[in-house]
Amino acid sequence: MMESIYLLIPIALIFVAIGVWIFFWAVDSGQFDDLESPAHSILFDDESKPSPQKQTKNQSAPTDKQNSSVPDTDKPQ
Fold first, then answer.
1. For residues 61 and 55, is the Cβ–Cβ distance under 8 A?
2. Distance from C-alpha of 27 to C-alpha of 21, rounded to nearest angstrom
3. CA torsion 58→59→61→66, rounded to 10°?
4. Residue 27 carries which DSSP code?
5. 23, 26, 50, 59: least buried by Cβ within 10 Å?
6. What is the pLDDT of residues 17-68, one digit of tens each?
7. Residue 70 clears pLDDT 80, i.e. is over it
C-alpha cells in the first residue's frame, strides 16, 4: 500500500504543477482580460452578410424554376 503512495504523490504534484503553469499561461496571454464582451455580444445581431457557399464542378445551383418541388403560384393554371 505504501509503495503506491510513493508513486501517486509525485504524479499528483506534477499534475498540480502543470495546472498552475496552464493557469498562469492563460493569465499572461490575456485569456481573462475581457469577460463581459462575449456575454453581451450574443445579444446583438451580426452585421456581416453570409458568404456564398462554394460549389464543386459537378454541382450546379438550381434556378428558381428548375428542380423546384414547390409549384409556381404566380401564374394561373
1. yes
2. 10
3. 80
4. H
5. 50
6. 999 999 999 999 988 888 888 788 888 877 766 666 765 555 555 555 555 5
7. no
